[in-house]
Design goal:
Oligomer: single chain
Number of helices: 4
Number of domains: 2
Strand content: under 5%
Order of helices and strands: HHHH
Distance between the termini: 80 Å
Shape: elongated
Radius of gyration: 29 Å
Number of strands: 0
Helix content: over 70%
Length: 98
Amino acid sequence: MSLRNNKSRRVARKNKEEAKSFVDILGSDDFDEYINFIKSPTKTFFFNFLRGTGFGLGTILGTAIVLSLILYIVSLLGGLPIVGDYVRSIVSHINLGK
């Protein structure tokens, strides 16, 4: 019985601490700024637009860098006996496209 009471007291104490921290967050200046930001649809739209543009640009640049590194590594494999023929045929197909 004692273990249950201790556990329930710990849970109650943890819940009180979480509620206090939540109330502290609600009273902070950052939360007021966030509410004002949410209330303004134009600010929200432009923020999300810029965020999406940055995300898209980062995705494209990251993909280009990773693919170029992969292609460079694959081009180094051109001298291998079995894989080299396959890589050379791929490279020749890519060069025909130019």
